[in-house]
Amino acid sequence: MTWYLDDNALTNIPGNLFKNMNNLRQVSLIGNQLSFLEANLFLHNSLLLTLDLASNFIQQFDVTVLRNVSGLKQLYLRKNQISIFDESFVNYVNKTPSLVTLRIDNNLFDCSCKQLYFQTWVKHSNLIEHKDDLRCHQPHSLQNQTVAGYKRPLFDCYIKWVLVGFAAFVGLLLVVMVTYRLRWYLAHIRFAALSVAKKLVEIIRLDECKYDAMVIFNSKSDHDTNWVKQLMMELEGGDYPNINLERPDERVSYFLIVSIELAFCFDNVNFALY
To answer: How confident is the model over 29-74, as pLDDT tens digits?
Structure first.
């Protein structure tokens, strides 16, 4: 089955137009005003062999429209307004061994650095016909040069990244130089900051703790022992276990408890047992 819809000033093709045409082999849409194709246009036409979209206004050809067409032999996209054939299009062409004719000449090709892969493909492809009619439309410096033949120094394409890398290197070098030049000044600032922090800690501690303590008493005297025990409880505001201070082992444990808790407040806590 063949459909010819040439020169009808068509601006759009309904996505379901060929839905029930399983035996469709050829579609010709030459000389219309199409700017795009519906993604599902050929969803049910796996036997399609020829598609001719020459002389339209197509700006971007989405190859997914052919995702179910595995045996395509001829594809004509010449004389449109396509600037970029992306990598998915290149991959489709490379993976379709049945394709024998490909016309993509007389489009508005973008020959900027980001299209270097396309130039490489055009140069090495034996499938593309009329390669001399694939000419650059932009940038202006390459206008009208052939896509396969123009020469652009790689440095031109990577100059932006070279400049970014150089700027980053210079910036890092300046930071290192300034840091080294001001190392003593920065060390002084660090020392001063630590000193201020230490003073603040001391001020906070002084707000909570008003004095140091040194306790010397006769542990064999019940009067002294009870007095010290009562004093520690009042100072700390806590309850200590009922310990027999006449037993050396318990005396040591008790004063260890007292010394640990007091150490959080008192700068110097000394206990002398005799």
So the answer is: 999 999 999 999 999 899 999 999 999 999 999 999 999 998 999 9
77 pairs with which residues across the strands?
Answer: none
d(CA 57, CA 30): 11
Sequence letter at residue 156: D
> With contact defined as beta carbons under 8 Å apart, do 76 and 34 qualify?
no
Whole-Å CA distances, 128 to 121, 165, 205, 212, 235: 10, 39, 85, 95, 97
Q: CA nearest 136: which of 84, 76, 59?
A: 84
Q: Considering the entire predicted model, what is its pTM? A: 0.59
Second-level CATH architecture of 1-150: Alpha-Beta Horseshoe (3.80)
Q: On the CB side of 144, how many CA atoms lie within 13 Å of its CA?
A: 0
Q: Hey, which bits of 87-230 come out as E strands?
A: 101-103, 109-110, 136-138, 213-217
Across-strand partners of 272?
216
